Amino acid sequence: MNKIIELRSDTFTTPSQQMKEYMFDAQVGDDVYGEDPSVNALEEKLAKLTNKESALFAASGTQANLLAMLSHCQRGEEYICGQDSHIFKYEGGGASVLGGISAQPIEFEDDGTLDLIKVNKKIKPDNFHYAITKLLCLENTHNGKVLPLSYLQEARKFTQDKNLLLHLDGARVFNAVTALGIDIKDISACFDSINICISKGLGAPVGSVLVGSKEFINKARRYRKMIGGGLRQSGYLAAACSYAIDNNIKDLEKDHIHAKKLALELSKIDEIKILSNNTNMVFIELLDKNVDVFINNLKNKGINISGTYNELRLVTHRDVSSEDIEYVIKAFKEFFIK
Ligand SMILES: *Cc1c(COP(=O)(O)O)cnc(C)c1O
User: Which of 121, 180, 298, 335 has the smallest number of CB atoms closer than 10 Å to its CB?
Assistant: First the structure.
């Protein structure tokens, strides 16, 4: 068994032969001078696709989110976000460390939304005791969960009424678009800015794009240079992202079908409880089993999954085929059903 079936994350996708050929042929220039045609083409593509004025190519989703925070908020201002949101929990506290921006996290609802009534209670009054509440951050998808369009529209109206900005961590926003069968413009219309990762299920090796108004992106471009994100001939990477946007969005549907199939078959195993199954993710709980022993057993069969305590996460993506899914289901059943 040479092939590893990688279910830890959709970040493990590697560039296809066609993508590599497209990268190889990319026209490049110095992007810090604004002269890399492939970067410019990607930024224009995403701005147009999301119906925003402008876009900026970033090295990672973490960088794109940080640029958004730095551009939207000043020192002494704060953002409201989900307790388990990527921005708050998994990005080293960048906005606080580098921007003097504080976080006001609240618990997510079960459906991945933030209850706007609870958000409202956390907006600080205009009083010198408090940080100035400036921004609300949502995540779509969150643990694979898709936020309903009607909720996003409510959040738009709410933030406008409260004079807040609204940012979307849309690392997997195309999974949401795919699940809802809508145009990304319907989602982007609700936000001042969006971070879109192209290095996850879309299969590019590196890269995220931040979209928003011209003024916002101009600020973000200055911060990107400041934090060392001006990347010169980055057109080779941008070309991979353009290829992914043009060719790979349509394949996300298959990943969702694979995740559903996994959830259905694993639910038949008594020792497994399905905690959630949305878009390309399945979260499961192992009942009465040593998780490390199980993870190692799968690893010996060429399957990588990640877990903490008794909870395991399986993420499907374009490098996991239908046959791979069948193989994984078989491996699970072999372990539990003796
Ligand atoms: C992956 C991810 C990011 C960005 O991660 P990078 O590894 O920095 O590209 C941001 N938000 C969410 C929800 C993510 O899943």
Answer: 121
